[in-house]
Structures are given as C-alpha cells and as structure tokens.
Amino acid sequence: MSWCKVVVLSALLSVSWCAEDWTFPPGFKFGAASAAYQVEGAWNVSDKSEGIWDRFAHTVPTATIDGSTGDVACDSYNLWETDIEKIVELGLHYYRFSISWPRLLPYGFANFTSEDGKRYYNDLIDGLLAKGVEPMVTLYHWDLPQVLQDLGGWTNPLIVNWFGDYARVVYSLYGDRVKLWLTINEPMSVCDIAYNTAVVAPGLLSPDHGTYLCNKYVLLGHARAYRIYESEFKAKYNGEISIPNQLMWYEPWTEDDVDLAELAIQNNAGRYSHAIYSKEGGWPPAIEKIMEENSKKKGYPRSLLPAFTQEESEYIKGTYDYYAMNYYTSRVVRAAKEGEVLTAYPIGDIPDLNAVVGVRPEWAQSNSSFFVLFPEGFRRQLVWLKKNYGDLKYLITENGYPDIGGLNDEGRVNYYRDHLKQLLLAIKEDGINVTHYTAWTLMDNFEWNNGYSSKFGLYEVDFNDPLRTRTPRDSARYYTKIIKNHALDLE
Ligand code: BGC
What Rg value do the Cα atoms of the chain yield, rounded? Predict the structure, then answer.
C-alpha cells in the first residue's frame, strides 16, 4: 500500500510525503553516544581523583552483578584514536561523549584544572574534528567527584555553584570547538533511580528527601550552566545547550487509567521538564499538589518537593536551545488495589501516585526486564512533548537495545529499524522537528550495575583482550547503511 499526504510543519512550510518514502529530512544527523566512566578506564591515572562510581564499584560488593568495575572499561583513555576510527567507519556525523569531572577538576572545585585531563579531551575533540565528526559533549554523566558527594552531592544547594564553576572551565577550554552541549545526563536517573533504590552510585537510599532535593538542585544546576554559557560564551561561540531527559512512556493499563497515565508522565517527564519548558515554569501543578498531600499524610510540616522561589522559577524557565530526549522503553500503569504492596519507583511502581506499573504481554522482551520494547511509545512520547511544550527542536540523544552479546545482533537491528520508523512517522506525520538521532552506544561498555554482562554496542568489545578489540556487529553495518542512504532500510 502506498499513500501520500501533505504535512504542515509550520505556517510557511509544508511538505508532502508518501508512505513508502522512508528518507530522513535534509540535514538530519546521526550519531552515537558514550559516557566517560563507561568507556575511559584509567580511573586513577595521572591526577584524576575518585568519582562516585569508583567509590561505589570498589566498596559495595553488590554494586555490579558480575563484580566488575570501570577501572579499565574500554580503555578509551588510551584507545580514543581507535574509537575515532570506528566512528568514521560508521559514518557518524557526530559523537556524543562526556567529560569526567574528577579527571578535569581532581579537587571537584574549580581552583585547579588537571593538565592531563585538559589534554585528553583536547586530543579527542581535535581528533574528531580532523575527521569531520562533530563533538557533542555531556558535562555530567553520573561521575561526580567523591569529594563533592562527601559534601552532599546533588542534594546540597551549593552544587549549583560547583557545577556552574565546572561548566565554565569546560566552556573556556573547549567552547571554541564544541557547539552542542548537554548539561546533566538523565536527571531522573541521577535523582529518582539513585535515591529511591540505591542500586547506583552514590548508593544512598533516601526516597523521601534525597530524590526531591536532588530534583530541585539538578534543575538549578542545569540552569546555572545554561545561564553561564548564555552570558559569557554564547556571543563568541554560538553553541546550543540542553539537558537530556530519560523519558519512559506510560500507557493506561485499562480505560479507567487514562488520567493516571498522564500523571505518571508528569511525574517522570514533567518533574524534569516543566520548570524548563512550560510557559509558567515550576513543578507540574498536579504533581506539586499530590506531593503536598502525600507529605502531609506522612506527617511532614512542608512538602517533600521543595518549593521554588519566584526568582528560581524565572531563572530555570527557558534554559534550553532544544529538547534532548533519551528513550528506551514504555510501561502501562493502573491504580493500586487496597493493600497492594508497591515496589520502588522508577524501577518498579510509583508509590507517590499509588500506581502499579507493568508491561503489556504482547510487548517484546530484550535480555533485560527493564528494557521492554514498545516502539510506538517513542513516537507517542514525542507527540506528548510537542503538545505540552510546543514546536521545539528535538534531538534524540540516546536510544538503544541490550542483549547478551554476539556479532549477529538481529534483535538490535530490529530495535533500530522499528524505532527509527516511529521517529520518521513522528517527523513526517506529526510534524515534529527532530534533527538528530543518537544510538546508544558506540561499543559495549561498563553498563552500570549490570557490569559487562549487558551489551548495547554497535561494536562488540572483547573485555578479555588487553587491546579491547572492537568488532562491528550486524547492527553497525545496518546503521551505516541508513546513514549512507539517508533513509531507513525496512528490509
Ligand atoms: C544511560 C546510559 C546507559 C543506558 C543503558 C541510559 O539511561 O544514559 O549511561 O548505559 O541508559 O542502560
């Protein structure tokens, strides 16, 4: 079947397309991502200090299911030139990587910058640019200097200054060459996953307090980094900044759960987006109200969700140049029954909403019970964002699939095909302005509490080989073909 339609993208621009036309818009860019702790290794080389994942993996016996650490990981600290070769082989337009705060500022504070840290990221950035690959840089991908964690980390209001100071150092060093910036990777993971479950660094359980203090200060920290760039660097360098949110799409379990599903989305996407992208700023009103009631029921004298002052709210509002979205998986949600015991959000249920979370039986599984496949959720989430925050520029900053390894990774090929198809439908049918797509991840790496047991790489990495040999999987060839043709291969 083939059919064509006209889609109005804006008042002046309309495009027509046919259902069999699976090409990407002109100028659309493809990349792949990684993160410092997951690939670099060299955890104590030169003057690098301990990060929270170094401490967590070294001292908590249950930190990873295979007892591993990121001490060596993919050894990208030494093998970054090999990484660039693979990036070029794939034909990527850009490469997303993160800077290790404890490598660049070993004391956490901006009083001292490591020469070795400076050199490492200079080499990587220059190496990419020399091959025509654009660097997309994340300032923070979960490796806080331990010295700052000892002072309370993301729950201490002063981190807004510390993060801002760090961001300024990074912009001063690399802003002449880096034009695409991301502040704090997945604040939902940094706050909600970390403090609700303690399964990731810093390994502290504090669902009532840690989660929501962190929620407020990541938003303010992001805003500080944005404002510093805006006032001190933008005129000179003209880069663009956003904060990558991990969005889990929620569907109603039954038709009675439609309002609850919307609340679940507000609790996940909204708690980390509303303050930045909505016209009124602040917390999503429905969540703010529920949190007030819940806090009262628990006997607290004020809401656990810390209020914003008017000034803070104004400071955070509008601190974006585009919306950065990480998407992996979806869920269904229903009201809990009387006496039903709930598990911890966001790995499990949503106690704040008295909601039980599950998946539809027909959704395909990956090797991980967390990463259940519902590609339509990707498109629906984009439609929700446009409806709630407007016709922004959207960049997909992560999307990917875990398996247990092997070079013939059909599951991953299918995942990319099915998700890119939904992305194209969002662009062509729903008129959503998506400009970038980032595959997670370039190569197998340290997959947090799953250690090296869960593989997300377009390239396989042999972790038993001191050379950490990288070998392309079928998915790497599939992705390259899409990039080369600038069109989706649905075969
Ligand atoms: C994170 C990555 C992680 C990936 C797969 C994302 O949420 O940003 O660091 O490896 O998920 O779990």
Answer: 22
Euclidean distance between CA atoms 202 and 198, whole angstroms: 7
Catalytic residue among 186, 251, 312, 447: 186
Active-site residue, from 40, 134, 251, 398: 398
The residue to which tokens 């410092």 are assigned = 36
Q: 398 catalytic, yes or no?
A: yes
Residue in this structure with the two tokens 């699976």, named with its chain if needed: 22
Q: Are 400 and 366 in contact (CB under 8 A)?
A: no
Query: Which tens digit of pLDDT belongs to each residue from 239-265?
Result: 999 999 999 999 999 999 999 999 999
Residues 316-373 pLDDT 10s: 999 999 999 999 999 999 999 999 999 999 889 999 999 999 999 999 988 888 899 9
**CA 25, CA 115: separation in Å to the nearest integer?**
42
Query: 29-485: what fold?
Result: TIM Barrel (3.20.20)
23 Cα–ligand 1 center, Å = 28
CA of 303 to the centre of ligand 1 (A): 31
Contacts of 21 (CB under 8 A, 6+ apart): none
Residue 190 CB–ligand 1 contact under 6 Å: no
441 upstream amide cis, omega within 30 of 0 = yes
Listed by start position, the domains of the chain span 29-485
Q: Active-site residue 230, yes or no?
A: no
As a whole number, mean pLDDT of residues 230-241 equals: 98
235 CA distance to ligand 1 centroid (A)?
33
Q: Is 440 in the pocket of ligand 1 (CB under 6 A)?
A: yes
